[in-house]
């Protein structure tokens, strides 16, 4: 299927109207993986003019527009201060500056990519997503949605009460997708741990969070390794992931609990 | 579809396919410094500046360039000559396929970072792969270029 | 011959002559130069690892807009060829056709489409309906021999001379040699070490994908521009495959975006030619990165069984190296890569009483193996240099001491030089330059070998370790590699240097100009290089086997010496004296009674007096292959909790003879090391259970980026090879050989985890740690 039309709607609702009821229309966020997509669409709906590239703090929350780029997460001082640097750190090694200049928060989250470091970090931070039609819901719920409706992700809302945060990932070469990634945060006194690239999409490690609440970083590592599911892929085996999960969770928590 | 852009400081009016990448449109219009190396935004050889920001042109839809400014190495002749001289002096240039993309990225870096040390240079340019050299001589050449530019 | 102190052009780090043009993005690569109106040629590729094509229906594709032609195996000459760009007759089996009824790996060509635009061609390729009968694939190379599934039953395929070709047994080549009675010496040795190692398939990842274009010129000749390392071999093999005369074809290599051996095979040339010959239109074929991964070549994966016999004092007495090599679907470079695994490693330890080397190269339904920098030497080096460290451990010796006790030295020889060449016998050779002792001394100093010790804990659970490896390579293929160069004197004193040599981006055009300038006594800036055109430059076998500096460089020097003579003769005539009484210093010819500048002489010779064109040709046949040597040292940091390995430092000290251009020699070493480090730690071609490639883009197949490598420290030691041009040996390949062994040895030193199958991944390190 060749792309026949390229549209740049001026708002999320306009974008929603373009894709609703048109299975041949697809949203373009960053566009980074444009060439990889099977081009199974005829109408490209580019969100670049939809006013979604804003970063703002409102009602004690950091609101990241869907078209905010990874590079912005690294360089924007507001983002850095709000997340204890976690949102910048989790994306700073992804490919190169060029790619981080086009990859977007919304494209990543909406794609539910299992390998995405950002999703792991946002999950640990307890972020919500805001959809043009579906409204606001917790990221965890959004990720678990098995049959998502056609919608436009407008923004991601991140709590700002982050006291400490830690990021750990394991990659082959530095710019590669993670073999495993771990985010641990202390948000307003609650310690939260998420583990992604297992290689499944990021999940909260609730057992590890319990152990962490008791100050037991080592126990939290063991709990995470025991409670999460791990799989084989090109980058590593399930067995290896399980074994290093404990070490990475423990190390991340040692930093957060210190 | 028709797009209007500013290419290397001059207005251009192009007919592009709605599904094509900026890289393809550039090469089709004779801007041949921009190289196709990987198709997955992984190698940096197709780097251009879009409104001054370095992006992989293989991953930017051509219609997105409508109303914007695109800069390639053809629009950076002085910077290319100076960086080229540094690369040549260090023996860092090899096949040259990655060089135009590297020049564009180095120019972006020199505008964005004040006094990058070696680690900062390596981090900023991590998206520009080179398979011929081991990056050592190239980094030396880039440091020399930044020093001379100052 | 002049020594380094007297030289003005050789030994200087002059800038590469094409540097500025390339950095400015001047159109110079094949796809930049292809005619704008060229048809785009695209292949329909097999989704099966092994299948027979039952039918191909191109009706729908041919009806699509812009589509001019579709070719299937029924439309092309059925002539068996090899796509390996090697000498004539090739030492690789002729086991391939332009298109065949069978497809033998995922990505193998099933049909070819030519259309006005790339998008049209790709759409049409998707519309070609190919009906396949899927056949069981052979995906385990250790089970390929005598497997009931035979990859190559076709009757037309053959070997050009005995290479052990037994296609009915899935054997592409076999080779065995021995010196002395290995079994008896091993039985008498005080310590015997037997180990099995594996090396993986690696991909070249030249940043310029494979690319070719063709057109018919005014004389109706087929012109080819190709991103190739071997224009003459391409022309000869194309002629054979297309059933044309060699004289009907011209091949030109423009600038090329890296090769590393990956462009020593033919790829798009034949398909473009089909389209051009059928339609009369120019045609081009530009591989996507995915096609480069799925449909070119990889390094041959190998299983290497090493047996070392030694005495307690560290005297090495016997080496036995048995190899099984996977050549994938086709036997490109099968025998020669295999032989180099022994020929370019075993002579390092020339004092042993007995050596045995042998084994087979087998067919599987993987990507075909092919030439890749290191070309067997890196595989052999990983096994041998790992085994030596393991032996040193058993003997309680410093691994350097063990090597110093047994390694080759200047003035010595090895029987292997005479026994093993590349595909044929080798030649006897006394080693006239070998600075391994200096390389080791300097490398130890740079890495801090004695000060740091083999192992340190730098943080809880984090250990640093040191490892090292030695390496040798060759300089061209003796009695086979041949190169020629022509110099033409222009009016007002400049020279055209016409060379067949093929610059892959390495800077060989520059260093050959330096050699010409040094010999003539002129400045390198007065040498105008034109290279790699089968019509317009003299012959050269091509850029492979570390041959260009040593072999082509010699040819250039010979041409320049002849040119000097002619200038003297003509200068003397102009001055009215005997040539014997005249001198030429590069600037002027001086006789007893006066002088004439080269500038004036050259103009006179074309416009005024005794008018004639001065043009000389030098030709050189490689008669021996003096090895360059390297001592390399790796420092790694291993996280015992995760198995992660961080390469902290890498030091390489090289004896490449006199470096013609030290900067360009060093960047060869640095670039080779980077690729070798990639192979040691990260790079790996991975297949799924049905033979589908899982690493088919740069997101899944990772080459090192600038943050993955330490600040590599490469140095050259002073050396002079008497047989080389101005004392030079090769430097193109030696850099790649050491990292797998040196890094594996360093990891073993750091945490006791010995990884014997590449790459050394965190997972393997952690597993080995648990076992250790």
Report a brief summary of the structure.
Chain A has 258 residues and is an alpha+beta fold. Chain A has eleven helices and twelve strands.
Can you give a write-up of this model?
The complex is a heterotrimer of chains A (258), B (150) and C (772). Chain A is an alpha+beta fold. Chain A has three domains: 5-49, Uridine Diphospho-n-acetylenolpyruvylglucosamine Reductase, domain 2 (2-Layer Sandwich), CATH 3.30.43; 55-159, 2-Layer Sandwich (Uridine Diphospho-n-acetylenolpyruvylglucosamine Reductase, domain 3); 165-257, Enolase-like, domain 1. Chain A is built from eleven helices and twelve strands. Chain A has helices at 12-19, 70-75, 77-83, 86-89, 97-100, 105-111, 117-125, 139-144, 206-213, 217-227, 238-257, and strands at 5-7, 25-28, 43-46, 55-58, 61-65, 128-131, 135-138, 153-159, 162-170, 180-187, 190-196, 203-204. In chain A, strands 4-5-8-6-7 form a five-stranded antiparallel sheet. The mean pLDDT of chain A is 94. Chain B has two domains: 2-74, Ubiquitin-like (UB roll), CATH 3.10.20.30; 76-149, DNA polymerase, domain 1, CATH 1.10.150. Chain B has five helices and five strands, in the order ββαβββαααα. Chain B has helices at 22-28, 77-90, 99-112, 118-124, 136-149; strands at residues 2-7, 10-15, 47-50, 53-56, 69-71. A five-stranded mixed sheet of chain B has the order 2-1-5-3-4, with helices on one face. The radius of gyration of chain B is 15 Å and the shape is globular. Helix content of chain C is 27%, strand content 23%. In chain C, strand 21 and strand 22 form a beta hairpin. The longest helix of chain C has 28 residues, at 548-575. Chains B and C meet through helix 2, helix 3, helix 4 and helix 5 of B and helix 1 and helix 18 of C.
């Amino acid at each position: 299927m060749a792309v026949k039309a390229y549209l740049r709607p001026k708002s999320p609702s306009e974008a929603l109207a373009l894709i609703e009821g048109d299975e041949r229309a697809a949203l373009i966020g960053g566009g980074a993986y444009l060439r990889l997509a099977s081009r199974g669409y005829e109408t490209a709906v580019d969100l670049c003019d939809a006013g979604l590239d804003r970063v703002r703090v409102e009602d004690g929350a950091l609101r990241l527009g869907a078209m905010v780029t990874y590079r912005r997460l690294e360089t924007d001082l507001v983002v850095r201060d709000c997340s204890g640097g976690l949102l910048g750190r989790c994306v700073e090694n992804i490919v190169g500056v060029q790619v981080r200049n086009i990859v977007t928060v919304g494209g990543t989250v909406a794609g539910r990519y299992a390998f995405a470091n950002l999703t792991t970090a946002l999950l640990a931070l307890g972020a919500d997503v805001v959809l043009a039609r579906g409204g606001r819901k917790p990221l965890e719920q959004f990720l678990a949605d098995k049959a998502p409706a056609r919608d436009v992700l407008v923004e991601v809302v991140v709590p700002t009460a982050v006291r400490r945060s830690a990021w750990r990932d394991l990659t082959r070469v530095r710019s590669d997708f993670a073999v495993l990634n771990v985010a641990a945060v202390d948000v307003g006194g609650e310690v939260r741990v998420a583990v992604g690239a297992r290689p499944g999409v990021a999940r909260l490690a609730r057992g590890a969070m319990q152990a962490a609440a008791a100050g037991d970083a080592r126990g939290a590592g063991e709990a995470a390794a025991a409670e999460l599911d791990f799989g084989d892929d090109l980058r590593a085996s399930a067995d290896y992931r399980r074994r290093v999960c404990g070490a990475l969770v423990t190390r991340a928590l040692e930093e957060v609990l210190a | 579809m028709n797009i209007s852009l500013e290419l290397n400081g001059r207005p251009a009016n192009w007919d592009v396919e709605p599904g094509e990448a900026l890289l393809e449109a550039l090469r089709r219009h004779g801007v041949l410094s921009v190289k196709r190396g990987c198709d997955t935004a992984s190698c940096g050889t197709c780097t251009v500046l879009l409104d001054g920001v370095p992006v992989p042109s293989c991953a930017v839809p051509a219609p997105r360039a409508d109303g914007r400014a695109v800069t390639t190495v053809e629009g950076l002749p002085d910077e290319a000559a100076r960086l080229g001289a540094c690369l040549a002096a260090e023996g860092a240039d090899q096949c040259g396929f990655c060089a135009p993309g590297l020049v564009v990225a180095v120019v972006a870096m020199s505008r964005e970072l004040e006094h990058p040390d070696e680690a900062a240079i390596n981090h900023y340019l991590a998206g520009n792969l080179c398979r011929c050299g081991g990056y050592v001589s190239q980094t030396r050449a880039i440091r020399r270029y930044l020093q001379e530019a100052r | 011959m002049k020594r380094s102190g007297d030289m003005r052009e050789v030994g200087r780090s002059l800038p590469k002559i094409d540097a500025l043009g390339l950095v400015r993005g001047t159109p110079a690569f094949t796809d930049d130069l292809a005619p704008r109106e060229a048809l785009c040629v695209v292949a329909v590729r097999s989704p099966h690892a092994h299948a027979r094509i039952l039918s191909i229906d191109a009706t729908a594709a041919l009806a699509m807009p812009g589509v001019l032609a579709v070719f299937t195996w029924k439309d092309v000459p059925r002539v068996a060829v090899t796509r390996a760009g090697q000498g004539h007759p090739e030492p690789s089996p002729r086991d391939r056709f332009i298109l065949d009824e069978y497809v033998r790996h995922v990505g193998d060509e099933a049909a070819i489409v030519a259309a006005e635009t790339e998008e049209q061609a790709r759409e049409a390729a998707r519309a070609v309906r190919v009906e396949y009968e899927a056949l069981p694939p052979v995906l385990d190379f250790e089970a390929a021999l005598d497997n009931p599934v035979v990859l190559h039953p076709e009757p037309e395929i053959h070997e050009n001379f005995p290479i052990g070709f037994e296609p009915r047994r899935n054997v592409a080549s076999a080779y065995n040699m021995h010196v002395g009675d290995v079994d008896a010496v091993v039985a008498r040795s005080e310590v015997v070490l037997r180990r099995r190692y594996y090396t993986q398939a690696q991909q070249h990842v030249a940043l310029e994908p494979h690319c070719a274009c063709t057109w018919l010129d005014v004389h109706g000749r087929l012109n080819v521009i190709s991103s190739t390392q071997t224009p003459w071999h391409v022309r000869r093999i194309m002629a054979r495959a297309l059933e044309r005369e060699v004289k009907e074809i011209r091949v030109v290599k423009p600038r090329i975006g890296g090769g590393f051996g990956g462009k020593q095979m033919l790829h798009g040339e034949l398909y473009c030619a089909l389209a051009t010959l059928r339609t009369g239109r120019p045609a081009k074929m530009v591989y996507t990165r995915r096609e480069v991964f799925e449909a070119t070549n990889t390094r041959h994966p190998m299983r290497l069984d090493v047996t070392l016999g030694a005495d307690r004092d560290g005297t090495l007495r016997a080496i036995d190296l048995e190899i099984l090599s996977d050549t994938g679907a086709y036997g490109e470079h099968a025998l020669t890569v295999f032989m180099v695994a022994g020929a370019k490693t075993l002579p390092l330890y020339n004092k042993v009483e007995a050596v045995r080397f042998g084994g087979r190269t087998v067919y599987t339904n993987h990507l075909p193996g092919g030439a890749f920098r290191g070309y067997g030497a890196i595989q052999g080096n990983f096994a041998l240099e790992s085994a030596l460290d393991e032996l040193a451990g058993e003997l309680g010796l410093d691994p350097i001491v063990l090597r110093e006790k047994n390694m080759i030295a200047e003035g010595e020889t090895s029987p292997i030089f005479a026994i093993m060449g590349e595909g044929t016998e080798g030649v006897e050779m006394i080693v006239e330059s070998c600075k391994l002792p200096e390389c080791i001394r300097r490398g130890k100093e740079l890495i801090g070998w004695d000060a740091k010790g083999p192992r340190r804990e730098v943080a809880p659970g984090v250990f640093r370790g040191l490892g090292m490896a030695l390496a040798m390579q060759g300089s061209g293929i003796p009695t086979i590699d041949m190169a020629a160069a022509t110099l033409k004197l222009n009016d007002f004193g400049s020279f055209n240097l016409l060379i067949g040599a093929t610059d892959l981006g390495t800077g060989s055009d520059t260093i050959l100009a330096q050699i010409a300038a040094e010999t003539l006594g002129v400045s390198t800036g007065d040498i105008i290089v034109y290279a790699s055109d089968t019509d317009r430059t003299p012959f050269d076998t091509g850029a492979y086997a570390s041959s260009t500096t040593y072999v082509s460089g010699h040819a250039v020097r010979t041409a320049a010496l002849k040119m000097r003579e002619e200038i003297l003769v003509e200068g003397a005539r102009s001055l009215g004296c005997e040539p014997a009484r005249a001198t030429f210093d590069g600037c002027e010819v001086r006789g007893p009674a006066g002088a004439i500048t080269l500038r004036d002489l050259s103009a006179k010779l074309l416009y005024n007096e005794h008018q004639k064109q001065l043009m000389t040709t030098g030709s050189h046949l490689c008669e021996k292959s003096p090895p360059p040597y390297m001592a390399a040292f790796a420092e790694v940091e291993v996280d015992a909790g995760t198995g992660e390995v961080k390469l902290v430092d890498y030091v390489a000290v090289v004896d490449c003879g006199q470096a013609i251009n030290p900067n360009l020699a060093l960047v060869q070493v640095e670039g080779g090391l980077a690729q070798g480090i990639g192979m040691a730690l990260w790079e790996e071609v991975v297949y799924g259970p049905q033979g589908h490639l899982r690493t088919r883009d740069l997101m899944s197949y990772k080459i090192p980026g600038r943050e993955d490598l330490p600040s590599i420290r490469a140095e050259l030691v002073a050396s002079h090879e008497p047989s080389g041009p101005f004392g030079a040996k090769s430097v193109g390949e030696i850099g790649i050989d050491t990292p797998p062994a040196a890094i594996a040895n360093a990891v073993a030193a750091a945490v006791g985890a010995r990884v014997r199958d590449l790459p050394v991944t965190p997972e393997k390190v952690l597993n080995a740690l648990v076992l250790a």
